[in-house]
Amino acid sequence: MGRVVGDHVDEGADVVTTSRSRSKAGAGLKVERVWTTEGVHPYDEVTWERRDVVMTNWRDGSINFEQRGVEFPESWSVNAANIVTTKYFRGAVGTPEREWSLKQLIDRVVTTYRTAGEEYGYFASPADAEVFAHELTWMLLHQVFSFNSPVWFNVGTPSPQQVSACFILAVDDSMDSILDWYKEEGLIFKGGSGSGVNLSRIRSSKELLSSGGTASGPVSFMRGADASAGTIKSGGATRRAAKMVILDVDHPDIEEFVVTKAREEDKIRALRDAGFDMDLGGADIVSVQYQNANNSVRVSDEFMSAVENGGSFDLRGRLDGAVIDTIDAKKLFRTISQAAWECADPGLQYDDTINDWHTCPETGRITASNPCSEYLHLDNSSCNLASLNLMKFLRADGNFEVEKFVRSVELVITAMDISICFADFPTEKIGETTRAYRQLGIGYANLGALLMASGLPYDSDQGRSVAAAITSLMTGTAYRRSAELAGIVGPYDGYARNAEPHKRVMRKHAAANDEIKPAGTVATAIQREATKQWSLGNKVGEKNGWRNSQASVLAPTGTIGLMMDCDTTGVEPDLALVKFKKLVGGGSMQIVNQTVPRALRSLGYPEEQVEAIVEHIADHGHVVDAPGLKPEHYPVFDCAMGERSIAPMGHVRMMAAVQPFISGAISKTVNMPEQATVEDVEKIYFEGWKLGLKALAIYRDNCKVGQPLSAAKPNKATAEAPAEVEKVVEKVVEYRPVRKRLPKKRPSQTVSFSVGGAEGYLTASSYPDDGLGEVFLKMSKQGSTLAGVMDAFSVAISIGLQYGVPLETYVSKFTNMRFEPAGMTDDPDVRMAASVMDYIFRRLALDFLPYERRAELGIFTAKERAAQLRAEAEAESGADLAAMAASAPVETRPEEPKTGPVAQPAQETAEVAAAKPAPSVGSSTELLEAVIGKAADAPLCFTCGTKMRPAGSCYVCEGCGSTSGCS
């Protein structure tokens, strides 16, 4: 395979010839080319263009970020370029020190990795180091992989070289340790990362202090940490503090811990309905506690068996292990599930499963995780992440680039290990543990897109077998490379005392790989190579040991997923079939995910049918009843949200398929419908344990009433809801909408129209402070049936508007409605109408909705459409000119920005700019809401106010790249 090897392993040999002395003799990695071409720099293989990045404030439209003339490859999307410019470019804006090109960013990081690799003896020669640097550069440039955000924030800058995104802390039963916990968390948040901690060592509120008083208990100390986290924004203004708090199921305060956040949700309901400002950043939201952390209960096999068998369970004191209380295990499990049903917390972490796969038990147990639950290892440790873009390895014929994937994993895992050599850490304890155990977290994104493009349903045996095989190949290759590195630069310091358990876990991974039942030729080929990698890696590891105690995790890939232009994050399926896309000249548009036509072609549909199905999806947002699409192919296009959403157990089964091949765990939240019951939550949590997951969290749609949503949804009491929940609802003051009537004298306008020959009049009246409040429709003669129906319809719409129903809701429902009369109109902005209703609400949208909302709905004036066509034509013309320029001889690459105005390839004319007012940022979640007519449970971005979308167990903002957790 021409692999990158440092110990010259012959796959057919029984003996691996490596030794620690060879490293001293100058042995190192021989790096061969994978993606690059000898004699050609990666930067010279792409077409570059200059762009303006201007970010506006979502509240008032003012500019809050502006950098003009930044340089990116032509293939990079507007969104990816915007996020890299605003998040990752270093230096003060407007100064010469400010980075302005992707070349500078990549060089800053890659040069640091190369220099450190040479300094610490990783490469056989300077030529190998140069090939390594070129390969990393090519992969980053072409979005094949990305390091986690702290690398882009810090590496190669005067700041501390923090490279880790995930941290685990430790708290002991002393005030000094608790106060250290507060301080250490703050330092981690300041550096742009998140942390987790297990509070189970702190004595319970049912135990005594040495002074004779009663202890406060861990829940009370959570208040102080929560308040501290709420005042700190990670990385300056990158995101709010992300943290995880864990308590063991046998802690005497476990019941108090379980219900903390559910009780706070009751408070939010009561305060909101009493008129207090409980929105994001509201004046009164600060009175709510415990909202800055994810909570998890660490459950044991003993407890879960007691739940299964209906037995009792002992809660034990922290000082001497004495039994403090004995409880009904099923009752506590019900309380956990009830709380999760109400507010999505707590999640579960399965302690015995976690520690059964622990490579370093002789050093200590795994007690905690990072905020998103994918990093699980020793206390006071950290993990740096990197994720591969799986779609870059899918060939046009549907096969997977197995060899390139293997060699790419080798390169990435090598770079990740090098970073530990030069990295800084927030505390000395974390630095010592990380340098001694060298925990890495390679992972991937775009799994959902890969499966769909391959014509495989996410929730299917075929889909799971491909996912399992890819994950096994990734981790098997990573550990094989780790074993080879151990022969060059030595195993991790803690390996000697943990050699036997580490080897045992490697054998467990290899045995799990043998249990994969590949479905199809693609999965078979990947699994065959994975078997080779595990066999070879374990053979090399027996001789050398391993360089890293951990190799892989599946992270949320929030911001870096956007940087790589991924359609799906981590292990997640596609969010929806329609996608929100930003345009170069400003504005946005709705498109059908490009994965869809590729999937249809993979399934054998001819091009004309592909076009018809894509058009149906664009109109309806789903594939149901799409012309020519076979019902047996519907599951291929199932998504996380929408008309055909994947069942909760489908998510759990996918997690179970890939978990045996992950060193850590999986950042993922199992989404459940609003009508799900507490019993459904219990089943999910119980099945997670049975299927061998390490951690699991659920989110029931619309359960967190305190989350700031773009639209409120009514509280739907169901017959299945437990009696306890009904009692909670009874305590809440019932909310009733208030009608806002128009004044006696109000501004109005009348439009005469003709649709398919049928004539009529539309009169629209608005409030003096703007906003449509009344509609009158006149068609046919007074007293006719049609006139009466239109009058009644007008009254119904008017009353709805006055009670606060948004106009865009009506527009999304009534546009594209088809019935006669239909056809040509006399309106230059709406030349064709599918019905009178279609015309009326398109006209109302044009007159009363802002541009950005209309753009999401695909409604434009004639002038705006003409401007778009001209912009597209100019963009194509600019691209042709750029291609011509690129074909000319290149003497040197530009190193400094040119002075004076920068020509924009897709620069719009003044008329276009006038036709397109600067829109506020939108997102795929908001587009999905418009398509399905239902608000999605996603918070607004703290930085720019855009509605975020799910990314693993966190959320990511498509507007500015901020995340609610690890990235």
UniProtKB/TrEMBL annotation:
Domain TSCPD: residue ranges: 743-846
Required cofactor names: adenosylcob(III)alamin
Domain Ribonucleotide reductase large subunit C-terminal: 164-699
Sequence segments annotated as region (Disordered): 882-919
Keyword annotations from UniProtKB, A to Z: Cobalamin, Cobalt, Disulfide bond, DNA synthesis, Nucleotide-binding, Oxidoreductase
Main function: Catalyzes the reduction of ribonucleotides to deoxyribonucleotides. May function to provide a pool of deoxyribonucleotide precursors for DNA repair during oxygen limitation and/or for immediate growth after restoration of oxygen.
Name this protein carries in UniProt: Vitamin B12-dependent ribonucleotide reductase
Organism: Micromonospora echinaurantiaca
Organism phylogeny: Bacteria, Bacillati, Actinomycetota, Actinomycetes, Micromonosporales
